[in-house]
Amino acid sequence: MDAKTIGLVCGVLALLGAATAVVWVLRRRTDSGIDPAIVETFWLRIRAWWIFCAVLVTALVIAKTVTVILFWLISFWALREFITLTPTRPSDHRALFWVFFVVTPLQFLLVGLELYGFKLYGLHSILIPVYVFLFVQARIAMSGDAKRFLDRTAKIQAGLLICVYCLSYAPALLALPLSKPPSAASRVEQPSDPTADPETSLPVSSANLLSRAYENPDPGSNARLLFFFILMVQLSDTLQYAWSQIPSKHVIVPSIHPGKTWEGLLGGAGSVALIGAALWWAIPPFPYWFAAGMSIVIAFMGFAGAITMSAIKRDRGVKDFGTLVAGHGGILDRIDSVCFAAPVFYHFTRYWLIYHGYLDASA
Q1: What span, in angstroms and rounded, lies between the C-alpha atoms of 168 and 109?
Q2: What is the C-alpha to C-alpha distance for residues 151 and 197, in angstroms, rounded to an integer?
Q3: Rounded to an integer, what distance in angstroms lies between the CA atom of residue 273 and that of residue 125?
């Protein structure tokens, strides 16, 4: 947690404090002219923000490994909520044992090992959608129960994909290399006069320049990248809800989510793009236009996650996935946007790093 990271976190906490004070006053006043239901919804969202930010910042302060463990626990609970809502048969219990107690921790173990320099991106990216999906099909078939076979396997695979595989890309942001290796730094970061130090004008060898560029990366850049991603997801959800309250609105999918409107989606995406561009300094080495563009991507993917999970809940005839978070249902109700946005944000970021020489495409 360097000075920039602390500044970003403190800024977010200050905004949360201001928002809490404003909504608290509005809840006390009955003559504000604002629908009390809207004020109460914002109050519950702010409470959820405080909890999530406190837990995430605490994990980042302690260690990156603790952050990975935190996301593993969230993933485990979210998968539990998903499987509970989409019940399976007793013959699936052995396959579910493997899913919960072997596959889920193994997926996050691979992410954790990447933090220590192990190049496991290839295995991390295909373990679940290739090997585990095939294993689940075969293991359930071996139970000898063919009733609703496709339906049962699809439920387990959908839960694994959303709650474990997709969510694991959020802590994987901590392992991305955000400083150039010496070979790349030698092509980009040397001054116009390779024999002069840009700060002192004294002669300096190219080897020393490369050593300085490689050995002094921004220490908090990965933590800020993850915090930026989570912040944009949460802001997108809140701003889409706020924009959807304007009088003239057009609901996108009334039968699935009557609260999601075109005004909310486009207004929220535009708002987070401006906020993302303003916070570009927090996530070097990315320029302001990349931060704005990725904020828009996050907004649209968060919307896709909310719509998809709402469709699942309507199919099952329930309002929420659980009751863990007071006023907001279960864990999965709070992280549906994160699950859908995480792999897209990770891969777009990774492709940018490859293109600009921060990462070898074969790594």
Answers
A1: 10
A2: 66
A3: 28
